[in-house]
UniProtKB/TrEMBL annotation:
This is DNA-binding transcriptional regulator, MerR family. InterPro entries: DNA-bd_dom_put_sf (IPR009061), MerR-type_HTH_dom (IPR000551), MerR_fam (IPR047057). Keywords: DNA-binding, Repressor, Transcription, Transcription regulation. It comes from Micromonospora cremea. GO terms for molecular function: DNA binding; DNA-binding transcription factor activity. SUPFAM superfamilies: Putative DNA-binding domain.
Amino acid sequence: MRIGELAAQAGTTRDTVRFYEKLGLVVGRRLTNGYRDYPPEAVTWLRHVRTAQRLGFSLAEIAQHGEQLRDATDDGPALSALLEEKIRIIDERMAALAALRADLSARIGAACPLQAAGQVG
């Protein structure tokens, strides 16, 4: 299928498909007339890529784990491990943000809010 058809079926743009191709996320072959031709399974794969992005995976992570994501079934252990790792990273970020929030809250109303905690002026 050509790039326009792929983009329409996957719910994306031609530019996005071209960008994904530059990153190696999708591969199309060049026809003799110069058009790109993509296999039908590229539609499903691009939908998976978009879903993975919505779940917080970067394009670099998707490219790195592409084979695991392509081969995973709905309950695939490899995919579950990736999701668990993403949850762990989110939990770490949430803890760091909670600590930052507490630090900021403690500084509200201080004579010099930018002075390090416990530092004598």
